Amino acid sequence: MSRESTLRFGAQTDEVTSLLRIVNLVRTGEAATRPEIGRVTGLGRGVVTQRVDQAIDMGFLADGEYGPSSGGRAPRTLRFRSEQGRIIVCAFGALHIRVGIASLDGDIIDDRHIGWDIARGPAETIDRALELADEILARHEDVPVWGVAVGIPGPVDFDSGRPVAPPIMPGWNGFDMRRRFEERFDAPTWVDNDVNLLAFSERSRRQDERLDLIFFKVGTGIGAGLLSQGRIHRGANGAAGDVGHVRVLESNSQCRCGKVGCLEAEAGGWALVRDAERAVADGAGGTLARDAADGEPITPQAIAIAAMNGDALAISLIQRSARLVGESIAALVNMFNPAVIVVGGAVSSAGEVFLAEVRQRVYELSLPLATRDLAIVRSLGDEREPLRGGAEMVREQLFETTFPRWFAEGRPTIRDVMPAAS
């Protein structure tokens, strides 16, 4: 915060607190008119008018339409000016890049999606993501970027924004992810695990601020995003939810992380592709074998589609994966007691072929009390989910975690939002 802002606002704690609260009440939809603000906050009419006028002058709020009348003059509604800033989201997957821009209310305005191997390394990958972001921004009105979200398929130290020994991302360990984005957009940047972004997306879609949920992704790799009372649980070092590397009993399969017997090495998409290719090489027939003979690559998506179409090899692979995944989810259910399990990822796109096995194992192995009100569902499978989740993560950081530090500036700055050392 600038020295002038400190002098102007520092000694007026009550005023700043009430001003912040009013902006957030309007932003979240808890109060839409001046009388509603007065009822929620207990502030007098004159004080509410003064604070609202200040928020309008600072550019946070604007007058909207007239609301319904309760007998007298209809009150004027207020709206948060979500158009005054943009959020950029870069969601990196093992084999793709998704980039989008969102308004400050989290709505995705525009996006791009390309195939990309993240093993090509951080420099080339981030260059391509920035090119995509520039292409999208060029199609829209020039509006300041207020925040950037980056999701990666590996463990992240959330405080520093650096990947920590990501198994499928050679060359990324300890890489300063924030610097390139902050230099390009002059905006605070947060980096998180890709599955956490999917959990944020579910929270936003369900509009439940106290949600207990696990998003379990079974794609090329395996990971889980944990929501406890609406808050992402990242753990002490950002490794929470990295269930893909839990040991499977009696497994000797080599994992990409360098260890042996990991869940991902038995049930992840890349493991299913490995097993399918071996079976075809050994003479297995069916859809996958015919596709391979025609030169079509076997992918996790292809296995899921073949299973839905009745291919015996694909069904056996999908069901085995689901049983192992269900056992891991059961352990999480007993420890975490969520209300909802959302299963997503390419392997889970086999639908009930996959989900039925997961449910059976979870209910067999979990405590009755933990499953009494438990819902196990598939994700919507919307390709924009990680983008919405990234926007939601940035909104949480901007308006719940760091808002008081940059509020007087009128917009977030890196120095007021991000930790001093990274």
Give your account of this protein's structure:
The chain is of the alpha/beta class and 422 residues long. It folds into three domains: 78 residues, Arc Repressor Mutant, subunit A, CATH 1.10.10.10; 149 residues, ATPase, nucleotide binding domain (Nucleotidyltransferase, domain 5), CATH 3.30.420.40; 172 residues, Nucleotidyltransferase, domain 5. It is 44% helix and 18% strand. The chain has 17 helices and 14 strands. The strands form four sheets. The protein has a five-stranded mixed sheet with strand order 5-4-3-6-9, sandwiched between helices. A five-stranded mixed sheet has the order 12-11-10-13-14, sandwiched between helices. 41% of the residues are buried.
Reconstruct the topology from this structure.
Elements: H1 3-9, H2 13-28, H3 34-41, H4 45-58, E1 61-66, E2 76-80, E3 86-92, E4 96-103, E5 108-115, H5 122-138, E6 145-152, E7 156-157, E8 162-163, H6 177-185, E9 189-193, H7 194-206, E10 213-218, E11 222-228, E12 231-232, H8 263-267, H9 269-281, H10 287-293, H11 300-308, H12 312-336, E13 340-344, H13 352-365, H14 368-371, E14 375-378, H15 385-401, H16 403-406, H17 414-417
Parallel strand pairs: 3-6, 6-9, 10-13, 13-14
Antiparallel strand pairs: 1-2, 3-4, 4-5, 7-8, 10-11, 11-12
